[in-house]
Design goal:
This protein is mainly alpha-helical. It has helices at 4-33, 40-67, 72-99, 106-128, 133-154, 170-185. It contains six helices and no strands.
């Protein structure tokens, strides 16, 4: 099966990056809620988020040769967005360690990069037929909802980290669990690339994309 090892690697990076960012951001939040608790928690939190940063960049690098035949420009943009997300997480972590000051809603910046990149990935998966159509559609919906939540939070309409606001995470979070599990256990669907079809916004690349 084509790109079998890449599929497993990407699946593991997706799952581990989601877990480490959740744990890391929780530890960072705990430190700023109670600075007297010591800097150890802050350091561990930043290191966990640092792993997340390089994991998401690794996802972009690993997926680039898989996605490129189906959409050169869009796959390049996906790689750029994942690297930008990595840079943002690292920069914020360095700021925390250097200043010991909190940066309010820094996660929204990360989610903005993640949401934009996720839309690009989901569209590429959909028109290339590399995974089941329903899963690609779930990704498109999930990341669109996440970006809507980020925008609503920035406008002060909702807090996506509390109450009903956490619902903005649900569809995208479900995609980021189901996609890596599918990649680990089943891999990508074998398809015949239609040259740069996704980049042109063209037709689906395979009959398998309808499944």
């Amino acid at each position: 099966m084509p790109y079998r090892k890449t599929a497993v690697l990407v699946g593991l990076l997706f799952l581990s990056s989601t877990l480490t960012f959740a744990l890391g951001s929780s530890l960072v939040g705990d430190y700023f809620s109670d600075p007297d608790s010591g800097e150890g928690g802050l350091l561990v939190g930043v290191l966990l988020e640092g792993y997340t940063a390089f994991a998401v960049a690794g996802i972009g690098v690993a997926l680039f040769p898989v996605l490129k035949p189906h959409g050169r420009r869009l796959s390049a943009w996906y790689l750029i967005l994942r690297c930008a997300e990595c840079a943002a997480i690292v920069a914020v972590g360095c700021y925390f360690l250097a200043s010991k000051n909190e940066l309010t809603d820094y996660a929204l910046l990360v989610y903005a990069f993640s949401g934009a990149g996720g839309l690009a990935l989901s569209y590429l998966l959909l028109c290339a037929g590399l995974v089941a159509r329903w899963l690609s559609v779930l990704g498109l919906v999930g990341y669109a909802v996440l970006l809507a939540g980020v925008g609503s939070d920035l406008l002060g309409l909702v807090d996506i980290n509390s109450g009903a606001g956490v619902l903005f995470y649900v569809p995208g979070g479900l995609f980021e669990v189901l996609l890596p599990l599918l990649l680990i256990f089943k891999g990508f669907r074998p398809v015949v690339p239609a040259p740069d079809a996704c980049g042109r916004g063209g037709r689906l690349a395979s009959e398998g994309a309808r499944g």
